[in-house]
Design brief:
- The complex is a heterodimer.
- Chain A has 17 helices and 16 strands.
- Chain A is of the alpha/beta class.
- Chain A folds into 2 domains: 175 residues, Aspartate Aminotransferase, domain 1, CATH 3.90.1150; 251 residues, Aspartate Aminotransferase, domain 2, CATH 3.40.640.10.
- In chain A, helix 7 links the parallel strand 5 and strand 6.
- The longest helix of chain A has 20 residues.
- Chain B is α/β, with parallel strands linked by helices.
- In chain B, the strands form 5 sheets. In chain B, strands 2-8-7-6-5 form a 5-stranded mixed sheet, sandwiched between helices. A 3-stranded antiparallel sheet of chain B has the order 9-12-11.
- Chain B starts with 27 loop residues before the first helix and ends with a strand.
- The chains are: A alpha/beta, B alpha/beta.
- Chains A and B meet through helix 4, helix 5, helix 10 and helix 11 of A and helix 4, helix 5, helix 10 and helix 11 of B.
Chain lengths: 460, 463
């Protein structure tokens, strides 16, 4: 294709008006939200880059399937279609529907975890870590070295460090390893993809040590795009086939369907092992719902079944990845420190490099998130010490490894002019960066504090 | 059939049909095979093998055109969705609780409130158990104790409020364990396992006064509160001229918080919430809900589902709606009574409960008479019902033996706004056919038994 413009492989069937606001209105909204944009009302937001989770625009095909849904409590036809779609992708015999991804995680990790157990991952996501720590187990991140080198253009910075994994397994003993989790793409590590070669190596190591290998597949289609692009032996494969091959390596597959299944609600846990499936099914019924709906309406299961096919469409995936890259490259060109290469679903900014005058203990990421909202009504999310920071015994902050801000792009929702507006807002952000102040936390819960914490702006 | 205020008026629906869903008419050979494949457990049947699905009224309602229009207004923002605020408004306006946390369904809310309020060794008194509610109480380390009046366990007793609490039983519990061991009393409106039976305002007021004295909360399992309110309007002195809406607000005002499966009275296919008046519990629940369900402004629900719930709540408290809803259930119940079928009386709000012990007096309870009867009704006509007897009751955690509930029932649960009067006629005819040939029905033996909530997935074979 020699044209530069990214043209969407769809046209718009239904629109949702957005509310415009003035800067002074936004100042007020932000104050009332305690400087935590998670607490803003959605009608106070112009461009919502908080998350790509559950925010997709569904297709007319998905809406049509929703209208045909079967809401029977047990054995609904919608369940059969959902089960078939998931089984076809994962090749796993036991499919447990859940209301969303974190429920699948909780069920599996509560069963596998507990005090004294270890989980290893390329990087645990916030809800994943919370679920694991909630069970009493430890969550250890093992990203490869290149993941932190932002000048490197290594294409698979989401990979898990297999050598380190081997060492850790030796040290803690294989019997104490609850599971190894490979998240594709690696969300908390900058939305970077994982290579098939890495997945194969992890799978081999887990098999030899008899350790459960879990694939967190919520962005598996976007990951497949990068494999197709950068791993030679997969050039001739379809994106769907690549995803199938990756699933085939794992013992369990967890998916928040709110990402790459293009739906607003849904998830699943797929398992190869019967006794593990039986144990998880008991937990499923207690907290989620009966085995053939798991807390989802029939129509949501229908939408997943259709979405899991649509997302692997070659034109869609090309459009999706290219439009994310478009935003990332534009920011990079104006000198915003972004994680490179640009990932699939989001652009990640190193806030501590943008705001060098704000120390980590004053949350430069949260400062950028607030600044983006004030300046342009853009809602983003901090992925740094607010999300992952902890306190030592004296109450001093143990910071996260990176102070990132994520601009997550909902699927099929915003147009190129929306993105161009965001780029303009960033020009202003760069110009006024010196005036931005840090924050401190004045109220926070024990788990997942970033969702509900209250902040105060520091005055100096 | 006269449930309206005027004489000789039928209960006709206050709506017309806007969209239909085709159903599959099965034949006997298909049903025979399907039943064997499903291990004689109606839960394990596929919905396309079912002609009239009376398995549950949960999540099976037909939504209104307004609700569908509301679904199109779904605001799927992760945080602060407009639909959440509409839901919050509806809960405050129609139920009167101060704080609302959405959950993907009722059991999500039960899980959270149980974890917050129950400490190991606690006692939770309630007006009869419900499967998922009791399980969450037990998993949190508590023990459920039934304090419903004895009449609730007698299928032929026509007490108008079989959901009432026996205050003497409650008092005895407090004396025995001390009020500190009782974090709350769980009050269901209306009581599902007793046959959809209501609690009276008078009784609830007494429970309120008594618990206030001992500083014990009341948590309201409000999934069928509108149906309960309708029975109060029809049966309780002083409430004839009060609207269902007013009565619901009064019920809620006598409690401290509630868990709601909106899949029943609130006319949606998915959704629920936890509502409380205490800020401290709300804050704890906001933190816990993130772990299990989702952020506190969506709780694991799509925006559109919160919108449908907000509208469904408003529709569900309408007098005409509840009158037609309960009217249809009464219609089927009266047909069956006229045929001398033994059913739980008075007829409840959401379903007809057939007394399987009286229906099949030749079977012992360990031969699972209700399970066998549900299988037989399916075989006759493709009507799917549900066992609510010894299989549902499960086993005692301490002794490992079955619980032997006094009521061994088959529930014909009527989905809201889905089936017509003609469908009800077919159901009655089928039950009658089975009744005529009941002597030939043999019991079942259980061949697979799951550890928790066994009724969902257990498998059986005929004896």
């Amino acid at each position: 294709m020699h044209f530069k413009t990214i043209i969407e492989p769809f046209r718009i069937k239904s629109i949702e008006p957005i509310q415009f606001s003035t800067r002074s209105q936004r100042e007020e909204y932000l104050r009332r939200a305690h400087f935590n944009p998670f607490l803003l009302n959605s009608d106070q937001v112009l461009i919502d880059f908080l998350t790509d989770s559950g925010t997709s625009a569904m297709s007319s095909q998905q809406w049509a399937a929703m209208m045909q849904a079967d809401e029977s409590y047990a054995g609904a036809g919608s369940w059969t279609r959902f089960e078939n779609a998931v089984r076809d992708l994962t090749s796993m015999p036991y499919i447990l529907p859940t209301h969303q991804g974190r429920a699948a995680e909780r069920i599996l990790y509560n069963h596998l975890g507990g005090a004294g157990k270890y989980f290893f991952s390329n990087t645990h996501f916030d809800t994943t870590r919370a679920n694991i720590e909630f069970s009493g187990a430890k969550a250890v991140d093992l990203p490869i070295e290149e993941a932190r080198n932002f000048s490197s253009d290594f294409p698979f910075k989401g990979n898990l460090d297999v050598d380190k994994l081997g060492e850790w397994i030796e040290n803690v003993g294989a019997e104490n390893v609850a599971a190894v989790i490979l998240t594709v793409t690696n969300n908390s590590g900058g939305g970077q993809p994982v290579s098939m070669a890495n997945a194969i190596a992890v799978s081999r190591l887990c098999k030899s040590k008899n350790i459960v290998f879990v694939l967190d597949a919520c962005r598996i289609a976007e990951n497949a795009f990068f494999i197709h692009q950068n791993e030679n032996e997969y050039k001739g494969h379809t994106f769907y086939l690549i995803a199938q091959e990756m699933c085939a390596l794992a013992d369990a597959c967890i998916m928040s369907a709110k990402k790459d299944a293009l739906v607003n609600m849904g998830g699943f846990l797929a398992l190869r092992n019967k006794s593990l499936a039986d144990a998880c099914t008991q937990l499923l019924i207690i907290t989620e719902g009966y085995t053939t709906y798991g807390g989802l309406s029939g129509r949501d299961m229908e939408a997943v079944a259709v979405g899991l096919k649509e997302v692997f469409d070659a034109d869609y995936l090309k459009y999706r990845i290219r439009s994310t890259t478009y935003l990332g490259n534009a920011l990079k060109e104006m000198g915003v420190p972004v994680i490179f290469p640009i990932g699939g679903h989001a652009v990640y900014i190193e806030s501590d490099k943008l705001y060098e005058h704000i120390p980590v203990s004053e949350y430069p990421g949260q400062a950028l998130v607030c600044s983006l909202y004030r300046t342009g009504g853009i809602r983003s999310v901090e992925v740094g010490s607010v999300m992952f920071g902890k306190y030592d015994e004296k109450g001093a902050l143990i910071p996260a490894e990176m102070e990132l801000v994520r601009l997550a792009i909902p699927r099929r929702v915003y147009t190129q002019s929306h993105i161009d507006y965001v780029v303009e807002v960033f020009e202003e952000i760069v110009k006024t960066k010196k005036q931005v102040k840090g924050l401190r936390i004045i109220q926070e819960p024990a788990f997942l504090r970033h969702f509900t914490a209250h902040f105060e702006e520091l005055s100096q | 059939m006269n449930t309206s205020n005027k004489k000789n008026r039928s209960w006709a629906e206050p709506y017309k049909i806007k969209m239909v869903e085709l159903v599959h008419m099965t034949n006997e050979a298909e049903r025979k095979k399907a039943l064997v494949d499903a291990g004689y457990n109606t839960f394990l049947l596929k919905s396309k093998q079912v002609y009239i699905d009376l398995l549950t009224d949960s999540g099976t309602s037909a939504m209104s055109d307004r609700q569908w229009a509301g679904m199109m207004l779904g605001d799927e923002s992760y945080a602060g969705s407009e639909n959440f605020y509409n839901l919050e408004k509806a809960v405050k306006k129609y139920y009167g609780y101060k704080y609302v946390i959405p959950a993907h369904q009722g059991r999500g809310a039960e899980n959270i409130i149980s974890q917050i309020l129950i400490k190991p060794g606690d006692i939770i008194p309630g007006n009869m158990y419900f499967t998922t509610t009791r399980l969450h109480q037990e998993l949190a380390g508590g023990k459920f104790v039934d304090i419903v009046i004895d009449e609730a366990h007698e299928s032929f007793n026509e007490h108008p409020f079989k959901g009432n609490v026996d205050l003497i039983k409650l008092e005895r519990l407090i004396r025995e364990h001390g009020s500190k061991k009782i974090p709350y009393v769980c009050i269901a409106t209306s009581v599902n396992m007793a046959g959809g039976q209501p609690i009276s305002i008078k009784n609830l007021k007494e429970v309120r006064e008594f618990t206030k004295k001992h500083k014990i909360r009341i948590i309201h399992d409000m999934t069928r509160v509108a149906e309960n309110a309708y029975f109060i309007q029809q049966r309780e002195k002083g409430y004839k001229s009060r609207s269902v809406k007013e009565i619901i607000l009064e019920i809620c005002s006598l409690t401290d918080g509630a868990t709601m499966s909106a899949k029943k009275d609130a006319l949606v296919n998915i959704g629920g919430f936890l509502a409380v008046n205490e800020k401290k519990i709300y804050e704890e629940a906001s933190n816990l809900v993130v772990v299990y369900e989702g952020l506190h402004t969506y709780g694991g629900l799509a925006g559109r589902d919160m919108e449908a719930m907000a509208m469904g709540i408003a529709e569900s408290v309408d007098d005409d709606h509840v009158r037609a809803r309960v009217g249809q259930v009464q219609y089927l119940g009266k047909l069956l009574t006229a045929m001398k079928i033994p059913i739980v009386l008075p007829i409840g709000g959401h379903g007809i409960f057939i007394d399987a012990r009286k229906f099949l007096p030749h079977l012992k309870q360990t031969q699972f008479p209700a399970q066998a009867l549900a299988a037989e009704i399916y075989l006759d006509s493709g009507v799917r019902s549900m066992e609510r007897g010894i299989v549902s009751a499960g086993r005692n955690v301490e002794t490992g033996d079955h619980y032997y509930p006094a009521l061994e029932l088959v529930r014909l649960t009527i989905p809201r706004r889905v089936y017509t009067q003609a469908h009800m006629d077919v159901v009655a005819e089928s039950v009658y056919e089975v009744f005529k040939n009941r002597k030939k029905i043999t019991g079942l033996k259980m061949t697979y038994e799951p550890k928790y909530l066994r009724f969902f997935q257990a498998r059986f074979e005929p004896l």
